[in-house]
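TICKET: design request
STATUS: open
ATTACHED STRUCTURE:
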């Protein structure tokens, strides 16, 4: 009898071959790669062929999703192609400064008053589900370094930053769960987990990246590295920045995003960061396959039925009300076309980042019924997001691109100036 492990390799190999060779056709369909992986994961789980018999614990999933997210955040940073000033990053500032807090506290409000969670658990759930996903949102994010379009830039930078800046609120929820008396820990949270950790993340992202790039340049002048190994500099930056930032109690997620921005601006040869971007995106895509396959295989019908109503309430409110309304409020006065504001509201894709924060919270003591409740609400929300956004991403972005082209043509015809 053939070993299950060998059959797993066979099926995954076939999946990779299908999605790779068929990527040109898949890109035209109302399907995302994440949705395909999720369906295959369910098919390979206990409700299908039962080939994936692995039941990873929270610690394994935490480490897996952690690595996927840091690679993705570095990749997002490499795509940031604008000057570092508030005007150029206006969309990002609004999405992070207004939309993310609105999302966190609106989810917490629903969880507290409708699902009867205490405020600590409700804020924790809001922090887990508020970040948009930098891994699954490739269909609506910047495709290359020359892409300067506002919607794509805003969604890419938001995915890079809110996965990092949700951490203070995750800590807030965990502290509140452990101790209802906020006076015992609030000052420490504000100083250490908010001010210090964010500041350290930014500083370490800059310093460590500049140091690695300086060493790289000096050594390359003396003896160039092997071409096959050169792109591993990107991976070394990711791991060094992340680990050293965590050592000083900073936010490693924020640091690797900053590292991507600094790395992109530090090499005079544009081919260097193009190559690094391609390399990190390949790692990201490969890890995405494994993560979403595992998620699909982990889904269990009894638990999903038990928490279906709660999960659908949160997912529905988040996707159809909280995110769209929050995005509309956050972009008041920007002058963005209505379709841009609508799509900022729609494309709040949830995925691997939320899985990471969930497993982190489970490792920090979230357990029993509350742990099950938050876990399955999170799983259900991610599944709903993957399905809805996976189906809608291609047609909506095609519509948006046509609208953008028409607007540019009107500007050219009336002013004679091509703003492309």
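STATUS: resolved
RESOLUTION: sequence designed for all positions
ATTACHED SEQUENCE:
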């Amino acid at each position: 009898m053939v070993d299950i492990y060998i059959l797993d390799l066979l099926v995954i190999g076939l999946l990779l071959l299908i999605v790779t060779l068929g990527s040109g056709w898949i890109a035209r369909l109302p399907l995302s790669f994440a949705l395909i992986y999720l369906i295959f994961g369910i098919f390979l789980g206990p409700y299908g062929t039962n080939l994936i018999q692995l039941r990873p614990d929270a610690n394994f999933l935490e480490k897996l999703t952690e690595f996927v997210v840091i690679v993705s955040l570095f990749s997002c940073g490499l795509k940031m192609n604008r000057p570092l000033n508030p005007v150029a990053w206006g969309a990002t500032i609004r999405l992070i400064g207004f939309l993310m807090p609105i999302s966190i506290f609106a989810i917490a409000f629903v969880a507290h008053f409708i699902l009867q969670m205490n405020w600590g658990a409700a804020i924790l759930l809001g922090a887990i589900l508020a970040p948009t996903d930098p891994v699954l949102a490739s269909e609506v994010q910047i495709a290359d370094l020359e892409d300067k379009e506002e919607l794509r830039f805003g969604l890419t930078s938001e995915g890079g930053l809110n996965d990092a800046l949700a951490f203070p609120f995750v800590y807030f929820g965990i502290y509140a769960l452990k101790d209802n008396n906020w006076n015992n820990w609030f000052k420490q949270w504000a100083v250490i987990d908010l001010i210090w950790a964010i500041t350290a993340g930014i500083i370490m992202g800059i310093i460590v990246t500049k140091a690695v790039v300086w060493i790289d340049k000096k050594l390359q002048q003396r003896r160039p590295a092997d071409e096959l190994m050169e792109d591993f500099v990107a991976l070394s930056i990711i791991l060094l920045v992340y680990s050293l930032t965590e050592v000083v109690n900073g936010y490693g997620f924020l640091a690797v995003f900053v590292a991507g921005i600094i790395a992109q601006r530090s090499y005079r040869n544009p081919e260097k960061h193009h190559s690094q971007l391609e390399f990190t995106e390949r790692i990201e895509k490969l890890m995405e396959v494994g993560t979403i396959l595992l998620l699909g295989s982990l889904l269990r019908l009894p638990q999903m039925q038990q928490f279906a109503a709660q999960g659908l309430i949160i997912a529905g409110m988040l996707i159809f009300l909280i995110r769209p309304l929050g995005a509309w409020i956050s972009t008041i006065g920007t002058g963005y076309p209505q379709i841009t504001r609508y799509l900022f509201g729609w494309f709040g894709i949830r995925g691997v980042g939320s899985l990471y924060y969930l497993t982190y919270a489970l490792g920090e003591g979230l357990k029993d019924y509350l742990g099950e409740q938050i876990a399955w609400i999170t799983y259900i929300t991610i599944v709903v997001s993957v399905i809805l956004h996976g189906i809608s991403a291609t047609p909506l972005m095609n519509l948006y691109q046509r609208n953008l082209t028409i607007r540019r043509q009107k500007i050219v015809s009336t002013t004679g100036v091509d703003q492309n």
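CLOSING REMARK: The mean pLDDT is 87. DSSP finds 18 helices and no strands in the chain.
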